[in-house]
Amino acid sequence: MSIPVLEAVALACERDWRLLFEHLDLRLAAGDMVQISGPNGSGKTSLLRLLSGLMQPTAGDILLDGKPLAEQRSELAHNLLWIGHAAGIKDLLTPVENLSWLCALHHSVDTADIWKALEAVGLRGFEDVPCHTLSAGQKRRVALARLYLPGPALWMLDEPFTALDKQGVAQLEEHLARHCEQGGTVVLTTHHSLSRTPAGYRDLDLGQWAV
Fold this sequence. Notes:
By secondary structure, the chain is α/β, with parallel strands linked by helices. It is built from six helices and nine strands; from the N terminus they run E-E-E-H-E-E-H-E-H-H-H-E-H-E-E. The strands form two sheets. A five-stranded parallel β-sheet has the order 6-7-8-3-9, with helices on both faces. A four-stranded antiparallel β-sheet has the order 2-1-4-5, covered by helices on one side.
């Protein structure tokens, strides 16, 4: 059996002195897409943050490419891409400057690639304007442009469809599915019902592990 891209074993999470879930097992291979679902407060974002190494589990283990996640902290930025619920961009910078800054933290990316990524998300003509002049949907597109740049094949996305219009939603669904079909792996939280999913799609309902 091949080593999973990402694996959680007997995972438990406590937040604000309340145990959200326990005994959670998860195996992700190349090509998989897992949508984390469940009611508000069930721990969807917490689980995503645990799998991304941004939080420590109350119990259990997380393995990335067969090695403990805790032992790979210095390499995480090169091994997975995290896009949180907030756009995570600086309003005083332009889209090009934001992406250049974000990429400089993790990967070397050519400016030409950044312009192509912004064009891919519908921001042609907005590359050099301050982000504070953009709408909420356009700011979200700046953040999502990172998905069109060279980088890790493992994507962790917290509510990526927030503020997108119908065209943006359809485009993102298509892009995520194609990424998985080409061997990438996606874990996401969303209240949106996906209409385009890859063969390796499955839903993980946190209600099954609720305490």
